[in-house]
Amino acid sequence: MIASNADLSCLALATGQGDEGVCLLAQIGAYRILLDCGITDISNLLELEIDGVWCSHAHRHHSQGLIALHTARPQLPLYGSSATTILLGLDNFIILPWQNSLAEGSPLGTELYPGLYARIFPAGHLPGAAAILFTYQGSDRSYTLLYTGDFFISNTRLTEGLSLNDLRGCRPDVLIVEGSYGTARYAHRRQQENGLVQQINALLTEKNTIYLLAPELGQAQEILMLLRGQMAGQRIEIWVDESIQNTCDRFIQCLPELPNNIQNFSRDRSLFWDDRGWPRVNPWPQTPKSGIFLITDLIALEHLQSLESVLLLVPPQYLESSTNLGLKTQKYFLSEHSDGAGTAQLIHNIRPQHVIFVHGSATYLADLTGLEELHSRYQLHLPSAGSLVELPIGDTFLHAPPPTESTYEGELAAGSQLIHISLPATVADDPRWQNFADTGLVEARWQGGELILRGVSARQLLNYPEKVAENLHCCGNCRYLRGQRCFNEESPLHGFKVTATGVCRSFATNLL
Ligand SMILES: [Zn+2]
Ligand SMILES: [Zn+2]
Hints:
Elements: E1 8-15, E2 22-28, E3 31-35, E4 52-54, H1 60-63, H2 66-72, E5 78-80, H3 82-88, E6 94-95, E7 110-113, E8 116-122, E9 130-137, E10 142-147, H4 164-167, E11 174-178, H5 189-205, E12 209-213, H6 219-230, E13 237-240, H7 242-253, H8 260-265, E14 280-283, E15 292-295, E16 310-314, H9 319-322, E17 328-331, H10 340-350, E18 354-358, H11 362-369, H12 372-375, E19 379-381, E20 388-390, E21 411-414, E22 419-422, H13 433-436, E23 442-447, E24 450-455, H14 458-463, E25 481-482, E26 485-486
Parallel strand pairs: 3-4, 4-5, 5-6, 10-11, 11-18, 12-15, 12-16, 13-14, 13-15, 16-17, 18-19
Antiparallel strand pairs: 1-2, 1-20, 2-3, 7-8, 8-9, 9-10, 21-22, 23-24, 25-26
The structure holds zinc ion (2 copies).
C-alpha cells in the first residue's frame, strides 16, 4: 500500500465504479479516517493505519464491508448518523449529532480525537445519508475536508435534499464528491414521479399485473409513499417481498429522522401498513394474486405460473439482464443522485481548493472534470482504485491542461421533409459511440431550449409500447418477420424476438 507523508491526502481503495463500492482513506492532519467501507474483500484494510471509520449511509456500496472490518478490528471506532445505524441494523456505532447548517451548533462540531472535529449534514438521497465536514486544528494551521457520500439536492418522498444554502461559503480545502450521473441533466424529481404514476396507471388499465424491481435499499419505500400519495383512493393491492417488508419496519423506526410532512402523515396511521385506506400494502401473498408486486430481485419471477398479463418494470440498468426472463418489460426512472447541474452547483457554492470525484463510471466522471467551469477554478482529481491523491494546500493554483475536447460542432441542413445533422467523425472515437449507434436510429427530444439526441438500442426497440398503424415502417409490417422473430440478416434485430412496433433501418414492406 502507498503511504503519504502529506497532511492532507486521499488513498482511493475503491472508487465506486461498476459493481465496486466506495472505500477511501483520508489523511487529515495527524489522523487517518476511512470514508465508507463499500468493499467485500477487506484484506487490504487489515494492515493499514486507521483511526476511525465513517459510514455515509446504509447503501450496500458504502457499507458492505463494515461487519467484516468490525469483526477483524473491533477496536476501530465506527461513526454514522442515527438513521444509518438503524437501517444497517448495527448497534456498535458512535452516533454523530446532526447539524442542519454551518451557523448551527459549535463551529467545529464533535471532537472525535484531540484536534479533529466533525459535523454532519443531511445529504438527501436516503434517510440517514450524511455529508461530513472534518476540521483538523494542528499547531501551525488547520485543514478542512468535506465528504458528501451520495447526495441529492432535490427532496424525495422520504428525504429532504442536501441544503446548498446551509453549506454556502464553507470553503473546505478538499471536497470529495460523488458524480454518479456525470454531466447528465434530468427532469425535476416531481415530474419523474408523476411520469411513473402515469405509467403504472396506464398498465393497470390494460389489466396487467405489475412486478416492479426496486433493488436498492429505500427505493421500494419511496415508491410505496408515492403510490399511496398519488393514487390515494384507488382500490389497488400492493404486495412487497420479505426484504422490502423488513426495510419498511426499519424506516418506521427511523420516523423521527424523516421529514415533518411524513411524521404528520403517520401520526394517526402506520407509515406503510395501513389497512383502512387504498392502495393497500401487504406482505407477500401465499397464493399468486393480482396487483402491484414490489421486488428486490428477479428470483420471485422464476416461480410465476402464468406470465401472460405480467409486466415487469425495472430501472434502466436492469433492462439488459431482465430480458432473458421472456417477460414484457418496461423501464422506469426515478433519480436518486444529483445530476450534473446539481453537482456543479454544490461545488460553486462551497468553493473548495481540491475536488476529488468518485462513484460513477469513469467516462461520466471524466465528463465532469472536463467542464470548463470546474477545471478552470478548482484542482480536480479523478483517482483510480489503488491510487493516492496528494492534496497540497495553499500552493499557487496551477491550471490543469484543458482536457480533451468533449463538445462537437456540427452543421444543420434543413430540407422540406427532413433535417440532416452532420457531426465530425471523431465523435465516434468515444467508447460510448457503439451503444449510441447500436441500431443506427436516434430519438430526439426537446429539453428547454436544447435538442437532446439519444441512440435507440435494439433492446429499446423491443420494448416500444406504441400500437402499429398499417403504413408504419415497423416489424409488424415487415416481410422478414416470422413467428415474432426477425429473419433479416441485414437487421440489427436479426435473430431477436421482436414486437410489432419494433423498427430498424433494414425494414422491407410486406405490401406488394
Ligand atoms: Zn447511495
Ligand atoms: Zn452509492
